[in-house]
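[job 0417] fold request received: LysR family transcriptional regulator
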Amino acid sequence: MDMKWLQTFIVAAELENFRRASEELYITQPAVTKHIHRLEDYLNILLFERNGKSVKLTAAGHKFLPLAKEMTYTFNKNMNEFDSWKQGYNKKLTIVCAPQIASSYLPDLLKDFIKEYPNIEVDIDISKSYEIGKKVSAGTVDLGLARMPSPYTNTTSHIVQKEPVVLAGPIIDGADESYLLAHYRVLTHNHPGYWDALLKDLKQFNPHIQTMAVSQIEVTKRFIEAGLGISYLPLSMVQEELMVKKISIYPSASSETQTSLTYLIEKVETEEGRLFKQFVMNL
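[job 0417] inference complete; emitting structure tokens
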């Protein structure tokens, strides 16, 4: 049996349309038909009922579909494991990580971890912080690094890093927090951990400030450089811009009350996960 036949069958079965299946698989429609015919010949039973251009699964097709999915999953899993073995790996660690963490301290951490444990294959999945707990809970990844704790009861969340929050704005000689709040919009909600409390604090003393929600820190920094606003950001996220003098940070009583936290989220502790956690905890 050719695995291509199974892949074609699964897509055609889910779409119930050979033309759309060909588009999904980037093959010709005659190739789809040929794969299905060969699979039916191999199994000696019809999997689809044909009625002109429309097709639908037979009882045998419905019965075979979950089996085909299981076979392809097992085949791909085994081939991936074999490919990892060829590369010298004997363990695998999948980490889901928030973009801010992946672009700040994770590269140096991973470099040291891989150097010490070269036999552990590491895959990185970049996701928003509020999605990370769900993925760890579902077991699709081993560990998560997020800016907020997981709400799922079958996971645990450990604080592994704390860093200060700073007021970042365009480079303006003599400016202070009061001047910036009066002349610029505050770019908000680019971090999941502290914005609600911070805005409440800011508006208590500055009720007329204008805000603009910008969901990504990288975009927030570009907006600051362009003079579109100011923001309160984790210090690690503005280090590069400070070095090349694209933005500046200013003293802020409001930012001193906030902290950016990094959480390590796990469901079940594995050996490779424990090793990585030790690395993170020792930062």
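[job 0417] notes: DSSP finds twelve helices and eleven strands in the chain. Residues 91-161+261-281 form a domain with the D-Maltodextrin-Binding Protein; domain 2 fold (CATH 3.40.190.10).
[job 0417] exit 0
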